[in-house]
Amino acid sequence: MERRALLVAINTYDYIRPSLTWCADDALAMYEVLRTHTNRDPNYACHVTLGYTPSWAKEPPPPPTPDPNPASQGASAPLPPSEGDPNVKRERVTFTSLRLALEDLFKYHGSVLFYFSGHGLLYNGMSYLATQDGLPTLPGLRMQELLDMANASAAREVLLIIDSCYSGGVGAPEGADDIAHAYLRPGVTLLAGAQASQLAAEVDGHGVFTRLLLGALKGGAADVRGRVSAASTYAYVEQALGPWDQRPIYRSNASTLAPIRNCEPDIADADLRLLPQYFSTPEFAYGLDRTYEVTEVEVAIPEHINIFNLFKQYQVSRLLRPSFDDHLYFAAMNERTVELTPLGQFYWRLAKAKLLGEPSPQSPSQPTIRRRPVPDPESVAKLFHEAYERLAPTFQYETRQATRVRWENVPAHNKNLMIATAAEVLATLFPLEEQTDAAPHPAPITPTDAAPDAPSDDAPGAPQTGD
Questions:
Q1: Are residues 34 and 182 in the same domain?
Q2: Global confidence as pTM
Q3: Measured between alpha carbons, how far is 136 from 83 in angstroms, rounded to an integer?
Q4: Do 231 and 252 form a contact (C-beta atoms < 8 A)?
Q5: Domain range holding 13?
Q6: Where are the beta strands (DSSP E) in 206-351?
Q7: I need a labelling partner for 177 at 20 to 30 A (CA). Which of 217, 246, 299, 332 fits?
Q8: Neighbours of 48 (CB within 10 A)
Q9: Are 5 and 112 a contacting pair, CB within 8 Å?
């Protein structure tokens, strides 16, 4: 593993008050997110230090705050203490022990991350990360010293994440003639929870900044490829904080935007690489017709259905849109075009420049869809309705012949119910894990496939589609 992380949290201090209650939980939550990617592949090799305070320095815990909404109790319950986890230690975090731990972290030649949750203090115009043995007049490690260590480190990439009061002091000049201290050497990035003159707040058992960080790293800040970077994390956090709230800080001298974590992608790189195959230029308009629509069983072409299903994925990922219509279905039925969105044009250029990786040797030379084409729920609902109406007279429903209703005339609430039901059935028939073994030429759905048997009107759950 080429990535290491040191996470430090301090709830209680020897001489600095007040005690904090959320920092250890913040560090443990960050540990759970950072140590693996969403697919459980290893990410950072983490060491977590939760500051231990001896009994003589402890304060009585604050009384619990009543929850006005009993239904929400337990929603932010403390995380398990991770007893027995060799990566989680409970020991005192002193000035000396913190500095030694940072020196050890910064010796590594790969990518390193340092996360701190605890008190940040100002003294004589300088900002400090408070250590447990810190005094009001000598709080702990100067934030500028932390940056100096990062700048001098052997690590290829350094990411500093600081959730404390005044954490924006990392890399901030300490005076009018101190511009040199604002320097970040190439490869160093800072994410701080507050400006150099601001306090940092807590809500619902987490620091405000860390709570937003966790949402970002779990996928809230991911791009369509599922990658969460420091820049996208800052953008996610910054939008959630108003002008009167604490303001996060982002400083970076990184020449590459390596992801902090990989989450579930909206679309696979293999599918993104197909964009230039179907769009000769970023502005190209691709023409559709009825042969792309699975419900047009007399004219539908399997290869076109494959392409149409891929285009649906592009549309959901905000890469493609119909040129004139509201939905791809109508673009096909009206024989009109689809085009790439600005975001789709961006990924077209990445694919054209071969910046999205290369296909594996096992990949087919001709573009095919990885996933089994799944019919549109509305198409299935329409086929079911039409087959039901057609077969009803053969099952002794004399009244049905007089009350048959075309799909277009079915009341909206009935239609929506059938579409939702079809969607749930499709989710059962085509589970996600089975969609990776697709046959290249799926057979189109025909009306006879939709409903070989029709239930009676008296059968439980029989939809009243024509009423």
A1: yes
A2: 0.69
A3: 33
A4: yes
A5: 3-64+76-262
A6: 206-207, 227-228, 249-252, 261-262, 286-287, 320-322, 337-340
A7: 246
A8: 23
A9: yes
